Amino acid sequence: MTRPLVLVVAAALYNDKGEILLAQRPEGKSMAGLWEFPGGKVETGETPERALVRELHEELSIMVEESHLEPLTFASHDYPNFHLLMPLFSCLVWTGDVNPREGQSFKWVAPSALHDYPAPAADIPLFDVLSGARPGRV
């Protein structure tokens, strides 16, 4: 059975302590309560970088330059109704204070503690790479 491909993009935002921002999916959304990287769907005609700049502003009120996004790794995961492809970028520089606009909670988390937070299945391999549990580009 062929499932539609859904392209989403995500960011590992690092603070000056080396912690990574995780956002908790709010009530009313699918997978509510799970922790994930900020980001979202790539719209028709957008590059992944442009989509991530847009999503970070919409979700967190921060401004990011495309040139500050560094490709890290990606996830490819089969969900029951679709296949998710998610490039993950790192970002160390942005303008503004993180201010969640969509009702989500957020936490700055040490890479070694990422697995302490329940996450969507597609994010687990990304947690593995960022925490050093699995080889990757990080």
Number of strands: 7
Structural class label:
alpha+beta
Strand content: 25-35%
Kindly report the spatial arrangement of strands forming the biggest sheet: 4-1-6-5
Count of DSSP-assigned helices: 2
Radius of gyration: 14 Å
Question: What is the residue-averaged pLDDT?
Answer: 92
What order do the SSEs take from the amino end to the carboxyl end, as H and E? EEEEHEEEH
As residue ranges, the low-confidence spans are none
Task: Report, as a whole number of angstroms, the end-to-end distance.
Answer: 34 Å
Determine the fraction of residues in helical runs and give it as a percent range.
Answer: 10-25%
What is the quaternary state of this protein?
Answer: single chain
Largest sheet: 4 strands, mixed
**Dominant shape:** globular
How would you briefly describe this protein structure?
The chain is of the alpha+beta class. The protein has helices spanning 48-60, 124-131; strands at 5-13, 20-24, 35-36, 39-41, 69-78, 83-91, 105-109. A 4-stranded mixed beta sheet has the order 4-1-6-5, sandwiched between helices. Strands 3-2-7 form a 3-stranded antiparallel beta sheet, with no helix packed on it.
Could you describe the 3D structure shown?
A hairpin with a 4-residue loop joins β5 and β6. The protein is 15% helix and 31% strand. The relative contact order is 0.26. It is globular. The chain has a four-stranded mixed sheet with strand order 4-1-6-5, sandwiched between helices. By secondary structure, it is α+β, with helices and mostly antiparallel strands. It is built from two helices and seven strands.
